[in-house]
Amino acid sequence: MSKQLQNIQQKLNERFYDREEEIEALLTALLSKQHLLFIGPAGTGKSVLSSMLGEIVEESRYFQHLLTPFSTPEELFGVLSLKDLEQGVYKRNVSNMLPEAHFAFIDEIFKANSAILNSLLTLINERIYYNNGVPIPAPLMTIVGSSNEYIEEGEGLEALFDRFLLRYEVNYIREQDTFIAMLKDQNPSHIPKMTMQELCEHQTRVANITISDTIYQAIAKIRQALQDVGIRPSDRRFKQSLSILRAKAYLSGRSEVIHADLFIMANILWETIDQKNATQEIINETAFDTVDAFIHRTTTEFETILMTAQNTMLLKTPHARTQLSHLLMQGKTLYIEVENMNRQIPNRPELQHLKTDIHKRLLQMTSDVIGF
Q: What are the MoxR domain coordinates in residue numbering (predicted)?
């Protein structure tokens, strides 16, 4: 079943340039039924990428809105019913509005004013909307929020910021070749879909992904290391992060969380922007043993090689063949590294899995380069 998601992930990576991390975050949030926040300048594709939630899952209800300082509750929760208002009942018509959505994208979410904030907080956290004081369960699975800037102290938005378990900075395309490939792209990839029933089946399987005592101990070690430098995420955030770790493992085609999955917690456990780098360093140092650090490094390097090769073939520059030969050699060198590590430490199944995966994709890359 995870092959279906991996196919969707691959096609999204083909459509959105230099957005691999954000796409993984979007699908992870989808599988774990958690909320995701994108922070970055305008024009980085936050809204277009987030709208994929409404396209990927058939039979789902999707809601999208841009907030301003002058937005009113009617824009998110529906207008007051005039018929009920005549009877002195303040009931909103929520049809096709946020309280009925499975997925939502709220742009400039930190522009939410006090008239909107309380209802929004309850809906995001408890999946409940109070209509005329009556609690109505909402089918909401995931909200993606976006903002061009971080919140400032004293704005009263700390609780809203805290509701987003995953937080990612989205920047402009970094590599020049990737930027040029984006400019030349005239045929966006078709994105495969799944039904709501298939999504629910995926989510059920995610909930059954195993987390070993070794992983729990690593999380506790991260918590202590963060506390030692004055960073204190809530126990609730740690508890909720388990669903993210399970979703991350499932998306990678595994039935158990491994140490390398803990890297995503660098986008969960910081509370203020000045804590972000320290949190990432602590997670890197604490969570990864020698093998896990090796796996993380080689996986990242190999993905970069594949992406560079793909872009090189798209650009068709005069020196493309020479560059592709170098990239292929780099890929083979990485494979030999993994093979040697697997030979030295044969009792780590994730090394065998990595070796098999790189070998398979390297063969495909070789075929593509020969046929170029």
A: 4-183
Residue 105 sits in a domain whose CATH number is 3.40.50.300
Same-domain pairing of 28 and 153:
yes
Average pLDDT over residues 296-317: 85
| Digit-coded pLDDT (tens) for 242-272 | 999 999 999 988 899 988 889 899 999 998 8
For residue 264, the enclosing domain spans 208-288
Pair (67, 128) in one structural domain: yes
Residues 264 and 220 in one domain: yes
> How many whole angstroms separate alpha carbon 22 and alpha carbon 33?
16
Q: Residue 210 contacts by C-beta under 8 Å, 6 or more apart in sequence?
A: 255, 256, 257
Whether residue 168 contacts residue 153, with contact meaning beta carbons closer than 8 Å, is answered with no
Element (DSSP H or E) covering residue 195: strand 194-195
6 and 149 share one domain: yes
CATH number at residue 241: 1.10.8
Helix/strand/coil percent split, the chain, to 5 = 60, 10, 30
Residues 104 and 216 reside in one and the same domain: no
Structure tokens given for 360: 């398979």
* Long-range Cβ contacts of 90-98 (<8 Å, 24+ apart): 90/132, 91/131, 91/132, 92/131, 92/132, 94/129, 94/131, 94/136, 96/61, 96/63, 97/63, 98/63, 98/65, 98/123, 98/129, 98/140
Band (pLDDT 50/70/90 cuts) for residue 154 is confident
Q: Which of these, 2, 3, 52, 44, lies nearest to 23 by C-alpha position?
A: 52
Question: Is residue 337 exposed (0-12), middle (13-18) or buried (19+ Cβ within 10 Å)?
Answer: middle
Query: For 118, phi and psi rounded to 5 degrees?
Result: -60, -45
